[in-house]
Amino acid sequence: MTQTLIVPTRIWTPKHVLITAAAADLPHTAEIVRRCEAAGVADIDFLASNRLTGLRGETERETYARAKSTLAVVVAPPSALKPQPIPPSADWRIDLAKGCPAHCQYCYLAGSLSGPPVTRVFANLDDVLAPIATHAGRGTITSGTTERGHEGTTFEMSCYTDPLGIEHVTGSLAAAISRVGAGEFGNDVSLRFTTKFDDVAELVTLDHGGRTRVRVSVNAADIGNRFEGGTARMPARIEALRSLALAGYRVGLTIAPIMPVPEWREQYGRLLSDVADALADVPDVDLTVEAITHRFTPSSKDVLLGWYPGTKLEMDEDSRSAKRSKFGGVKYVYPREIMSEMRSWFSGEVDRVLPDARMLYWT
């Protein structure tokens, strides 16, 4: 068995760090400042209030660029400290941060977060993690279920951020993994997150206790290369997956967003084969697969076209099916026949190429 040499290909370092007054004296802020200084960040500004300033430029593109290069250290408000159910991924959602440094042209956060797309990391980490203990044993997705009950009560950390993408300047992910791994919140809880980055050098040294599942977000080469700016390339992500599996982590694939691009069967087939090759000699791999097709809302389309006016991403309502929520919202998904064709192919191909993997869901 060969250990992979972990040399990350993409590490995001902010140009600007803004620290709000409420966050300034918290212990985790000191760790964030230490990491930012070690990464060479020179512009670290302690604000006199809790209002983030200096993020807007003269144009929408300037505002986007400045916000994407800024890390804001803030205190999570009470509303962010109440775990929410997050089916079909996990029992509950907890947020280490909100916002992401990547430049994915289909960004799922577009339209769901207000204001400039700055990344906000929560400095009151103890408060953020505390609900893990209070919600242990509660939930309907994994906790107490036959299929996934062995995962315990699960807490998803990547709904509003890519926590690995900002980890080297925050340390929040390592702290959460270590504390849960040590049993601080009980023995029957686990964390999970998904990432498009590959800087796992620190993670593989942690005593995670088998209580964290790291899923690597993967896609067809054409989609990753064209639409996922600022992220690790697919081979690097797969190498990171291998390194994590060798370190004993539960691992997974988040295949998303699936799109019926030209030769999609061949491209996704190569992707699955590459994963199989990377894990072939890793013993006792606990591998899951989550498959998510591309969708968009009218508000997210408007935001994305403002951020990426030259995008070639297909967002044509006339070629999609409208899916309405019980609250009256609408999102555009692929028509039923396309969804059925892709789902059938993925189900069969995952079973064939990755026979030991568990497909958790298709959406």
Topology:
Blueprint: E1 16-19, H1 27-38, E2 43-46, H2 60-68, E3 70-74, E4 84-86, E5 90-93, E6 97-98, E7 103-104, E8 119-122, H3 125-129, H4 131-134, E9 153-156, H5 172-181, E10 189-195, E11 212-218, H6 221-227, E12 228-229, H7 234-246, E13 250-258, H8 264-279, E14 287-293, H9 298-307, E15 321-324, E16 330-333, H10 336-353, E17 358-362
Parallel strand pairs: 1-2, 1-3, 3-8, 5-9, 9-10, 10-11, 11-13, 13-14, 14-17
Antiparallel strand pairs: 4-5, 6-8, 7-12, 15-16
Helix pairs in contact: 7-8, 8-10
Please give a structural write-up.
With 363 residues, the protein is α/β, with parallel strands linked by helices. The protein contains 10 helices and 17 strands. The protein has helices spanning 27-38, 60-68, 125-129, 131-134, 172-181, 221-227, 234-246, 264-279, 298-307, 336-353, and strands at 16-19, 43-46, 70-74, 84-86, 90-93, 97-98, 103-104, 119-122, 153-156, 189-195, 212-218, 228-229, 250-258, 287-293, 321-324, 330-333, 358-362. The strands form 4 sheets. Strands 4-5-9-10-11-13-14-17 form an 8-stranded mixed sheet. Helix 1 links the parallel strand 1 and strand 2 (43-46). Helix 7 packs parallel to helix 8 and helix 8 (264-279) runs parallel beside helix 10. The longest helix is centred in the C-terminal third of the chain and has 18 residues, at 336-353. The chain is globular and about 55 Å long. The model has no long low-confidence stretch (mean pLDDT 95).
